[in-house]
Design brief:
The structure is a single chain. By secondary structure, this protein is an alpha/beta fold. Helices cover about 15% and strands about 30% of the residues. The longest helix is centred in the first third of the chain and has 15 residues. The radius of gyration is 17 Å and the shape is globular. The chain starts with a strand and ends with a strand.
Amino acid sequence: MKVLIIGAGGHGQCVADTLLRGWRAGSEVEALGFLDDVEPLATDHFAGLPLLGRVPDLGDFPEAAVVVAVGDNAARKRLFEEMASLGRVRATVIDPTAVIGSDVIVGAGSYVGPLSIIGPGCRLGSNVIVNGGGCIGHHSRLGDHVHIGPGVVTARGANIGHGAMVGAGTVIKPEVSIGRGSVVGAGSLVSRDLGEHVTAVGAPARAVRRQEPW
């Protein structure tokens, strides 16, 4: 399968690195390059792959699957849904160093980064990001468009709502829920449930302001 990466920024380059290492290890998934609408770009190559054009140039590659590699949740959701409306196959990218439980479900278009661990019984929605070193405890659930930062640890049974963002190095205690659209600051300790569309920080994490719903 040939894959186009939508987004040539930092996260896109992480996705490219995973695809290239997988290809060298014998994977049949081949990364063709990037499409990106940001202008101007300083170079025409990122992580060893070429910049092939802008997102509207997608039609030049009718057989390629796509992965939306944009860190911002709202922008990633918009692009993911645009790709779905065009009937494009949305590739799921899992780093070869990740450890995935045998009964885990990972939704379409998601990315699981290097050295991540996804425990048994977990369910990840579509268009999810689990960055490198993330550890998702057994029987946890992540909604669509969730973004898990590097080194996040959830204990068993975490429930992270649609479109939530969990900052790097955060720890989430057992059976705790984070509401849809909420943002948890880096290095927080989430010891009790958080509502929808809030920003929370600290140890223990406390809501400090409201987020505008998408």
